[in-house]
Amino acid sequence: MADINEREFYRRAIKVGNSAGILLPKSLLGAEVVVRIVHPPLNTKKDVMKMLENVMEEIRGIYIITETEKKETKNIKQIFKRELKSEKNAERFENNSEYQEKTSENKERSKRKIEIIAVSMSISKTLETQDYHLTIMPLNLLKKLAKDKPDFRQKLFHSKPLMNKWLLVELRKEMGF
After folding, report:
1. Least buried of 65, 86, 89, 143, by fewest C-beta within 10 Å?
2. Which fold has domain 44-175?
3. Which residues contact 23 (CB under 8 A, 6 or more apart)?
């Protein structure tokens, strides 16, 4: 039998009553164990608010568009980039990317980025971290994209509000949903 001191387990915390816990083999009953957090859970609202703290006075609403694979994130990013180019704001878009992926670990985790759109008065900007792809766009551009791009309209319809649910309801009404 392997020495109990040399065993290492990787477990996901689960709900246990009114808290979280991990399940271990019965042979460890009564043993003292050390728990180390490898990847803390995401707190989307707190993380996004921290990313936007410098421009918060310009923000009218924040919405989670998708929590799926990076392919969809690229589609929205490309649509937004093309739209900005058509309005001759591409340079501003490229220069304002503050948070960039730098390591292979970030690239590996980027497969599961959460895509978020923040509606502003006049700011056009893209921010990226290892967990989030945040696009800040003016309300008039958002309305134009929703009108012209059916796939974007569907994503906006199915989005979840983080801030200002009322604006999202009004946008849905304008789109005819």
Report:
1. 86
2. Beta Polymerase; domain 2 (3.30.460)
3. 11, 14
Contact 114, 94 (CB under 8 A): no
Model confidence pLDDT, tens digit, residues 24-55: 888 888 888 888 888 888 888 999 999 999 99
Closest to 117 measured CA to CA, from 69, 61, 172: 61
Q: Which residues contact 145 (CB under 8 A, 6 or more apart)?
A: 79, 80, 83, 137, 152
Instruction: Return the amino acid letter for 162.
Output: L
Q: Which residues contact 84 (CB under 8 A, 6 or more apart)?
A: 90, 92, 93, 124
* Structural contact between residues 62 and 118, judged by C-beta atoms closer than 8 angstroms: yes
Other CB atoms within 10 Å distance of the CB of residue 124: 19
Between CA 44 and CA 34 the distance in angstroms is: 28
**Mean pLDDT (the chain, rounded):** 78
pTM exceeds cut of 0.70: no
The H or E element spanning position 14 is strand 14-16
Domain ranges of the chain: 44-175
